[in-house]
Write a sequence for this structure.
């Protein structure tokens, strides 16, 4: 197999009339990595993915794969493939024919396409279901057929738009592990659009956080969570306090924020909420400056010295855990 190559976006832009959905973004997706495009609804994730796939016209900019600008090639000639939601399967075709469909369109002979479809079904562990119709499969199995159907074209880059959103929470976690396993086994790049922070943290080698048509921050999952650069990223990833200090705004993880007796912390606060969350308890306090701060305390420690609503406590943290924010 040939060496996989990076996919690079250069000043990629999408306009719908007056709306700028994607504003001249630059990004290099490294070959063979699992990348998640993460952000709130409407920030431009799907438009970006659909431009890479060729399902949406590029307004401006370039998409480089294998030293070639693919921005204006038809979808089937780009070296990318899009995994569609499972409801896009053909209801009247059996599983094998669904998976082989794009090869049939490309004029590949029946024996060859059936052989390759069976290889793909083996990859997603559905080889025994080849003769069933989609409506004879569970939701999770249909999703795996959709995946096999996208992978049969041997793309360098697999594009996935909210692939897990239609599944119930239990299946979502199983399917998530399945996606990760496939990406590792195939060694190709996955670009996965999601608005779920947990999903991105669980899957991604690299997270690209988008906000308002731009890339707010991109980097390894650990870096995005531990060292958010902006208040937006800190708030969107969750689990952080964004606090204004005399020297500027900082992000501080709530599990790096601890409770102490009043007067002995960096700041005092009055408890406004106590939420039991199984492994830990989230205690929110309002400081005299009017800022809400949350301390995420291990449940066992909390119940050793329980706190009450309305109680005044000190909040403490290590200076090294408070990361300066740029905006
Ligand atoms: P996301 O995937 O992050 O939810 P989208 O890429 O779907 O965001 O949308 C980005 C912006 O572009 C939004 O303001 C949305 O309303 C707008 N938009 C998306 N598709 C169209 C379209 N076909 N026509 C007009 N505006 C669109």
């Amino acid at each position: 197999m040939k060496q996989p190559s990076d996919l690079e976006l250069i000043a990629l832009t999408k306009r719908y009339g007056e709306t700028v959905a994607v504003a001249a973004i630059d990004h290099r997706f490294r070959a063979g990595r699992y990348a998640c495009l993460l952000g709130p609804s409407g920030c431009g994730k799907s438009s970006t993915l659909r431009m890479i796939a060729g399902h949406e016209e590029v307004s401006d900019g370039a998409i480089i794969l294998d030293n070639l600008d693919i921005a204006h090639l038809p979808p089937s000639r780009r070296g990318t493939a899009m995994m569609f939601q499972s409801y896009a399967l053909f209801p009247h075709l059996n599983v094998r024919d669904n998976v082989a469909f794009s090869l049939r369109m490309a004029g590949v002979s029946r024996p060859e396409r059936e052989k390759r479809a069976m290889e793909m079904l083996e990859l997603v562990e559905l080889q025994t279901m080849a003769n069933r119709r989609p409506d004879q499969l569970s939701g999770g199995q249909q999703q795996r057929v959709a995946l096999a159907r996208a992978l049969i074209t041997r793309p360098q880059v697999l594009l996935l738009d909210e692939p897990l959103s239609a599944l119930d929470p239990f299946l979502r976690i199983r399917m998530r592990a399945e996606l990760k396993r496939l990406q590792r086994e195939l060694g190709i790049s996955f670009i996965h659009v999601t608005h779920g922070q947990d999903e991105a943290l669980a899957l991604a080698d690299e997270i690209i956080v988008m906000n308002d048509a731009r890339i707010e921050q991109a980097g390894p999952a650990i870096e995005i969570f531990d060292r958010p650069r902006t208040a937006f990223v800190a708030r969107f990833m969750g689990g952080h306090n964004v606090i204004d200090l005399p020297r500027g705004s900082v992000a501080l993880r709530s599990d790096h924020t601890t409770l102490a007796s009043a007067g002995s912390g960096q700041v005092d606060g009055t408890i406004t909420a106590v939420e039991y969350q199984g492994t830990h308890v989230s205690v929110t306090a309002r400081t005299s400056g009017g800022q809400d701060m949350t301390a995420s305390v291990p449940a066992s420690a909390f119940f050793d010295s329980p706190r009450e609503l309305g109680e005044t406590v000190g909040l403490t943290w290590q200076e090294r855990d408070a990361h300066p924010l740029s905006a």
Remarks:
- The domain at 240-324 is CATH 2.40.50.140 (OB fold (Dihydrolipoamide Acetyltransferase, E2P)).
- The mean pLDDT is 94.
